[in-house]
């Protein structure tokens, strides 16, 4: 049984909004950084061979901001979480292919980053599930 004060906190909408904001923090801060350094955002897309780089950068910013906002405000959270989950899966496969790295230390670091991103996808899935249950 959950202690009373904790149970009260877990059903508080402000606590849920805080959790959603923290869950999406990597996405919306990345989008803001890309907006602040547009040339860097385009260069990053080009670095990974994604073309047209300008369109990829713009779509990335849109998905990161719109997906985050949907989760934070709790409207269409399933769509926001799904979009961010698919984005994260694709970006992780492109940017962190640890299985191709020969150096064991570098491979370990990339593997850890890869698995952290997979865990983030799980968090997004839970966010969508919880939002649906509270509707």
Overview of the molecule:
- The chain has 6 helices and no strands.
- It is mainly α.
- Helix content is 83%, strand content 0%.
Can you summarize this structure?
The protein has six helices and no strands.
Helices and strands, with pairings:
Layout: H1 4-10, H2 13-36, H3 38-47, H4 53-73, H5 77-95, H6 104-134
Q: Report Rg.
A: 17 Å
Helices and strands, in order, run as HHHHHH
> Could you tell me the number of beta strands?
0
Number of H/I helices:
6
Helix content: over 70%
Largest sheet: none
Rounded mean pLDDT score: 96
In whole angstroms, how far apart are the ends? 24 Å
Inertia-based shape: globular
**Low confidence ranges:** none
Given helix and strand content, the structural type is: mainly alpha
**Portion in beta strands:** under 5%
Identify the notable features of this structure and list them briefly.
135 residues; 6 helices; 83% helix; 0% strand
């Amino acid at each position: 049984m959950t202690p009373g004060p904790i149970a009260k906190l877990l059903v508080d909408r402000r606590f849920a909004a805080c959790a959603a904001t923290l869950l999406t923090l990597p996405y919306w801060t990345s989008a803001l950084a890309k907006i602040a350094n547009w040339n860097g955002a385009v260069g990053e897309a080009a670095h990974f061979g994604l073309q047209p780089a300008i369109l990829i950068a713009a779509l990335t910013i849109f998905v990161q901001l719109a997906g985050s906002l949907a989760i934070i405000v709790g409207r269409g959270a399933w769509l926001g979480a799904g979009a961010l989950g698919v984005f994260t899966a694709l970006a992780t496969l492109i940017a962190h292919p640890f299985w191709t790295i020969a150096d064991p230390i570098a491979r370990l670091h990339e593997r850890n980053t890869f698995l952290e991103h997979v865990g983030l996808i799980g968090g997004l899935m839970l966010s969508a599930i919880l939002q649906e249950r509270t509707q």
